[in-house]
Design goal:
Strand content: 15-25%
Number of helices: 12
Shape: globular
Distance between the termini: 31 Å
Largest sheet: 9 strands, mixed
Oligomer: single chain
Order of helices and strands: HEEHEHEHEHHEEHEHEHEHEHEHEEEE
Radius of gyration: 22 Å
Structural class: alpha/beta
Number of strands: 16
Helix content: 25-40%
Length: about 350
């Protein structure tokens, strides 16, 4: 039953921020009598959704939920109170919620009402699903997932800049699936200038789940006629700069772009650590990085890349082509960012490897 709740939680990934993606299954006598998951925009919560979907009274039922029921009044009443009012007899919760507004209080409230509480079943899977939410609550920043589409020798474009298309159609479609699982997608000003991308999810049925678009652009030089600017009213765009001219800021804001100033790094570019904290403060839990080699290097040097999805094509471009990762200025292997391979699979004619940061 917890596996079923976890599957429901996964269906909500990329759709619930700033709330976590949670699944809930309610059972009596071995029969599932209700299911629910956190709905788009984060409300209703999974428990409330399951209660609303119940086919019969819940008195004495067992609730399987992937995260501790909330205990605070926000935009919705506490889920712990809703479960108590429904008369359930047992709650099996995968994880305690680290949010200080909850953190054990939901479980305590249920226990005080005479409901049996069990914690820990499916904990590892639940933590995996909500890794971004947990990171944001504990460290104040979202999870950053770097996507790379490269040749066998780690190149993303020829010396002239040609990059369409290194990987095949199936890999590109899978990349759009990956976009739909994240709260936002991040690129640098170079990618916007070179490709004029929309950065939306263009898979059938997933267009409405395109992530917000984040651009790092020190001088706020992005064209007001770009596709991102033209679609900012429909799908939000946030641009981070380091003190651009007021006229540039005003022009982009007229297009509906949220323009945010952050400190500059030692190299005079946008400080990615400051961006990470700002995005966490805005409620983002997961961000997919699709920028070029310079952006990838900046986040890697800052120790901010948590996962990598590497789509590799059976093509070799050579030393004079453009690298997937810019200079890291490493003089010792000990200083290199390290990752562990989690999975590898064939996607069309290409290979997708998923890597997690070693901890």
């Amino acid at each position: 039953m917890m596996r079923a709740a976890l599957a429901l939680a996964r269906r909500s990934l990329g759709r619930t921020w700033p709330n976590p993606a949670v699944g809930c299954v309610i059972v009596r006598d071995g029969r599932v009598i209700a299911r629910g998951r956190t709905q788009d925009g984060g409300r209703p919560h999974a428990e409330a959704d399951a209660i609303a979907n119940a086919r019969e009274a819940l008195k004495g039922a067992t609730v399987y939920v992937t995260l501790e029921p909330c205990a605070h009044h926000g935009k919705t009443p506490p889920c712990a109170d809703a479960l108590i009012a429904a008369g359930v007899g047992r709650v099996v919760s995968a994880l305690e919620d680290p949010d200080p507004r909850v953190k054990g209080q939901g479980h305590a409230r249920l226990a005080a009402a005479g409901i049996k509480v069990e914690i820990g079943e499916g904990a590892a899977a639940a933590a995996e699903i909500n890794a971004g939410f947990l990171l944001r609550v504990t460290e104040g920043r979202p999870l950053f997932h770097l996507k790379i589409a490269s040749s066998l020798d780690g190149r993303i474009a020829t010396a002239s800049g040609e990059s369409r298309w290194i990987t095949g159609e199936a890999a590109r479609a899978d990349g759009h699936r990956l976009r739909s699982l994240h709260d936002a997608i991040l690129v640098g000003s170079g990618t916007v200038a070179a490709d004029d991308p929309e950065l939306t999810c263009r898979l059938p049925g997933l267009g409405a789940y395109s992530p917000d678009r984040i651009v790092l652009d020190s001088a706020a030089g992005m064209s007001a006629d770009s596709k991102l600017a033209a679609t900012a009213q429909a799908t939000p765009v946030r641009l981070f700069h380091t003190g651009a001219q007021a006229s540039r800021v005003a022009l982009l804001r007229e297009k509906g772009i949220d323009v945010i100033e952050v400190p500059a790094s030692g190299e005079g570019r946008v400080d990615v650590a400051a961006v990470a904290q700002a995005l966490g403060g805005l409620g983002y839990s997961s961000v997919l990085i699709e920028g070029g080699g310079r952006i990838a290097a900046a986040f890697l040097k800052a120790g901010l890349v948590d996962r990598i999805s590497s789509y590799r094509a059976g093509i070799v471009l050579g030393e004079d082509s453009r690298s997937a990762v810019g200079p890291l200025a490493l003089d010792r292997l000990d200083f290199a960012p390290r990752f562990r391979l989690v999975s590898s699979r064939t996607v069309g004619t290409d290979t997708l490897e998923t890597w997690y940061r070693r901890t």
